[in-house]
Amino acid sequence: MAGGMLCRPYNRPVKGEMYAMNCAPILSVNNLKTYFFTDEGAVRAVDGASFAVHPGKTLGIVGESGCGKSVTALSILRIVDDPGRIVEGEIMFRRADGGEPVDLAKLDAKGGEIRAIRGGEIALVFQEPMTSFSPHYTIGNQIVETIQLHQDVGKAEARTRTIELLRMVGIPRPERRIDEYPFELSGGLRQRVMIAMALSCNPRILIADEPTTALDVTTQAQILDLLREIQERTQMSVIIITHDMGVIAEMADDVIVMYLGRVVESGPVDEIFHRPQHPYTQALLRSIPSIFAEPRTKLPTIAGSIPHPHNRPAGCPFHPRCADFMPGKCDRHEPQLRPVSASQMASCFLYHEPAEAPQQS
Amino acid sequence: MLTYTIRRFLLALLTIWAISVLAFAIIQLPPGDYVTAYIAQLASSGVDVTPEFAENLRQQYGLDSPIWVQYLKWMEQISRGNFGRSLEWRAPVLDMIGDRLWLTMAVSVSAVLFTWGLALPIGIYSAVRQYSIADYIFTFIGFIGLAVPSFLLALILLYLGFRYFDANIGGLFSPEYQLADWSLGKVWDLIKHLPLPAIILGMAGTAQLIRIMRANLLDELRKPYVITARAKGMSEFRLILKYPVRAALNPFVSTLGYLFPFIISGSIIVALVLSLPTIGPLLLRSLVAQDIFLAGTIVLFLGIMTVFGTFISDILLMWVDPRIRFERRE
Ligand SMILES: Nc1ncnc2c1ncn2[C@@H]1O[C@H](COP(=O)(O)OP(=O)(O)OP(=O)(O)O)[C@@H](O)[C@H]1O
Ligand code: SF4
Ligand SMILES: [Mg+2]
User: Fold this and answer.
1) Which of A349, A351, A352, A353 to mutate to test the pocket of ligand 2 (most atoms within 8 A of CB)?
2) Is the link from the previous residue into A182 a cis peptide, with omega within 30 of 0?
3) pLDDT tens for residues B176-187?
4) Domain architecture of chain B: domains with CATH
5) What percent of chain B stands above pLDDT 70?
6) Subunit contact A134:B247, Cβ cutoff 8 A
7) What is the distance between the alpha carbons of residues B330 and B327, in angstroms, rounded to a whole number?
8) What is the radius of gyration, based on Cα positions, of chain A?
9) Secondary structure of B165-234 in the HEC alphabet?
């Protein structure tokens, strides 16, 4: 399975010996399908995604807008909005108590267990720090509330901790800032506060959904540095969602590339960058502006546009835009995510032959 | 914030002055004056009136001096706490208004309480369970509530009460308390009589507020901060009350100001049907009779209530929405 593949030690030294010991993934998503049942029909936002998150590692999820990255994150926390529903697959999560992994996909979305995990063991940082806070309460109020939801501490104690957290994420004069409202802070500071709130209950996985998209370049770099530094200190796992290959290069240990709700390629970050296997990954990498590029050369973009989610192409979903398209094969059969090297997997007929019968899509 | 409040308060006073001018002007608008109306009334009941008699009356009431002099006289008297005498009833205006003003407030406040008490929970429920059967039912009932004129509702309820309970459910007091002095028993009697007018007067407003609350909350429920709160692991119930509902309350608070005058002016017909001893019917009567001091005082009071209602709702709004407090901090 996906987890097993990624778990194999790579040919490069990994941060510390921790890795070998905690090889079992902390989170492993298998064949996850989350559909939105709209009036116009089912939108297959996530359509059979599989990946694994390892202790103390950062998984990068990359893909164009609308490929299901956010819905994947929301599915893990079970906060997908109506009319969305997980229709298939499992989300195995090893809880802090060290017991058997629980399947988050099977839990009652409103129940106590998943609510203890949300914010407590798996925390989320959003793209838009402005609208992700309520303007009606101080940031202190909103963080203290999170702490008290998951830990049995009094108001005063929670407040002291909040000030500590704010200091840790680099908010100047935290004992004053704690009583300010979100709109009194700059975008960068707000994102730091958001991170402080996510960290408030010492989560074991931090999911950051495009945490820097709304920020200017300098602030982006600072926030990414902060995330990395915190991760090194706390040894938590991070899932970073982005459509920016630069962010992936800087942050991720492992990468999954998503296209139309599926994982089309996965592997260690070095392999993905140096030996991309899937034509879509190759195209994505070509689209990054390089500092070595000739000035004023046209930025290559991926040909064609993302298909509307209601009429997903038959066969390989990428075939209308693929440079290696093989007629009769790619438009008739659906490729599967298969190993293409010791550590890498890809879903493409360049690397395996289609099953006998054409699959229904 | 304090400077803002003070500035706002001074502005309120200025507005009240403007209202007093306007109130006076409006009363003077119809052709003729009280005497014309009075004489017409006398003539229609067969009494002969000489022009000298009319002139005398005019002088007696100061109706012969220019309008602005009349206004200044009026204001001067008011500043001394003398609101003048009702020309028609030949009694001090304050005595005429007295109890009626308080009873009107009691009816209005209970109508508002009824409206909010019903509209907020139903609106919240309808938004959270959008397109559920209950949502459709509330929507349906809401449209009926909007479509049926409240005086008709009053008539129907009066009829039903008369027919099936053999009781006159109009008025605000039982007969034995009608003329009695204020006592605990009378207050209790009043409280027992309040719900019916409150429901009738609040019905249309309730239906409207349910729609507003539902729409506001549906907007708020889609905001990212709701997802943030959910991702923290909050229970749905706590989360909705703490975050989106609070945001959706803003428009309610900001309309608080004109709610009272709206209910009073909208309640005249219902008050007549239910024979409520409130201020609406008195205002109507005084306007018809061109009873200037009585009508002027009532219009002035309504104006003051509106201005203060708006003032209070502004202050409340700052309390509910920190962004407004922040903007007005200087
Ligand atoms: N509430 C919803 N109702 C219907 N479809 C939805 C809903 N939410 C998401 N989708 C669909 O699910 C698909 C995946 O959305 P998602 O937000 O996960 O994309 P994304 O990869 O995060 O993109 P972006 O980079 O723009 O954030 C989209 O095609 C979108 O149309
Ligand atoms: S399966 Fe065919 S169309 Fe799809 S990516 Fe591979 S080569 Fe391209
Ligand atoms: Mg997204």
Assistant:
1) A349
2) no
3) 887 778 888 888
4) 32-82 (no CATH), 97-289 (1.10.3720.10)
5) 94
6) yes
7) 8
8) 21
9) CCCCCCCCCCHHHHCCCCCHHHHHHHHHHCHHHHHHHHHHHHHHHHHHHHHHHHHHHCCHHHHHHHHHCC
